[in-house]
Amino acid sequence: xxxxxxxxxxxxxxxxxxxxxxxxxxxxxxxxxxxxxxxxxxxxxxxxxxxxxxxxxxxxxxxxxxxxxxxxxxxxxxxxxxxxxxxxxxxxxxxxxxxxxxxxxxxxxxxxxxxxxxxxxxxxxxxxxxxxxxxxxxxxxxxxxxxxxxxxxxxxxxxxxxxxxxxxxxxxxxxxxxxxxxxxxxxxxxxxxxxxxxxxxxxxxxxxxxxxxxxxxxxxxxxxxxxxxxxxxxxxxxxxxxxxxxxxxxxxxxxxxxxxxxxxxxxxxxxxxxxxxxxxxxxxxxxxxxxxxxxxxxxxxxxxxxxxxxxxxxxxxxxxxxxxxxxxxxxxxx
Length: 334
Prior knowledge:
By secondary structure, this protein is α+β, with helices and mostly antiparallel strands. It is built from 11 helices and 11 strands.
């Protein structure tokens, strides 16, 4: 007589995991959350007193093949932070406050400790972003995933008043581009990164600028939500671009109106050493670096030049390193 557990799915392990993570998820609670874990859907009551004309902004993403490094290094908590970052950073570029987050964790055989570590990281990311972890799904799928393998997806919803929406429509020629520094490659380009590591033959404990190669590659994606919301509240932000896959070359144009382009001074900031290591050991052309990696800049803000000094000071107060990296120009003049 076969049981579900005999076929590879352990319902009891899933139930134990929910109990194990309940307190950590509760720590991300916001007043608008109406339910705890375990329901069929997470309930969130939008506080309409905070928004005159609310626009909901949604985002979903994963962490790509950085997962393979996380599994190899057994660094599961940091990958949870990455998952949240990739979603909420996309939401905040519209000026929206991320309100809640859900995750999808799929695996071949549920390892409770491994899954709990991932969700611990997700909860940490939610705290950094100020959003509530209101639910998720753990799917045990033997035959689809091998034992020890898992995959992740994240989903987040935010809100912004329509008249405060940052949509790039107010970008003007002459605006300054302010770049906020990244912690490293974040969660993009890891198929190329893994190929470079393999080609280099160097061990993951190789030191690069005082840090191991493993630590440089696994540094969690920075979550820019709180400093960017403060910036939008205090100053005239015309556009924000999250620098993900496609790098600086392809992400900034996504938020620009027709007839405008960017002139970036790539010498205006020093790249984290990991990028020079990748370029050297992978023999990667500079153009390929710029369209694959963030090259040390995780967010780019377009704003009036007379407000740049105030923006740099505010971002510094929030623990961010920022620097002017270029200007908005007429299309065709860059």
